[in-house]
Amino acid sequence: MTKKILVVEDDENLGNLLQLYLIKDGYEVRIETSGKLGLDALVQYEPDAIILDWTLPDIEGIEICRQIRYQSDIPIIMISSRTDELDAVLALEMGATEYIRKPFGFRELLTRLRLHLKRYEKEQQQQVRVSELVIGPFKVDLVMFKVYKEEVEIPLTKREFKLLLHLLEQPGDIKSREDIIEMLDFTKGDKRTVDVHIRRLREKIEEQPSSPKWIKTKSGIGYYFNDKAQEVSYNS
């Protein structure tokens, strides 16, 4: 199946050149010239990878990268004329898969894109092999990213899903607020936001959120999933 590449680049000449080289290399391509249009295309076009410029007319590419990472794990190749090493570090910390400085060689970019697509496809295949996690009354569909309690689906946001899965995978293992902040890519020190997400998650999975049975608090340390009677099992 032909891979779809989304290019978010406001320089028309560079965008056209990227489109030309990508099509020649066998890809289907969509070009967008602003951050907002790029985010819209992420949902509508469902690309397999994104080539993202840092400097855009409405929203900086680094912010677009951060927002994409809340929705998808697809490869993001960020391109920029910025030469400071700290810019490259920031881009990678915000979720970019690769950082390439302008001007760049198109062959190099295509090679890096091809390698990241292969790596991502391999990771996806490995994830599909383990498609379901079951613990106590909870079942987590790791393919469709859905959670069920006693066969009834629990509507969760992406962050709530990620947080619950983080706790479910190692029941009894206390996760500090710092650990959860890092896992959810929150701003460092945003501990109160962690507490808010825990509270919202409890409201959705607990019968009595004020007296939780499943998500327990270890005072002064963090949170853990309490299930002494059941072990975690994975189904494929």
Automatic annotation (TrEMBL):
Domain annotation OmpR/PhoB-type: ranges? 130-227
Q: Which residues bind DNA?
A: 130-227
Positions where 4-aspartylphosphate occurs in the chain? 53
What's one Pfam family here?
A: Trans_reg_C
SUPFAM superfamilies associated with the record: C-terminal effector domain of the bipartite response regulators (SSF46894), CheY-like (SSF52172)
Leader sequence range is: none
Response regulatory domain location is 4-117
**Keywords assigned by UniProt?**
DNA-binding, Phosphoprotein, Transcription, Transcription regulation, Two-component regulatory system
Q: Which PANTHER family match?
A: PHOSPHATE REGULON TRANSCRIPTIONAL REGULATORY PROTEIN PHOB (PTHR48111:SF40), REGULATOR OF RPOS (PTHR48111)
Report the protein name in the record: Response regulator transcription factor
From which source organism is this entry? Solibacillus palustris
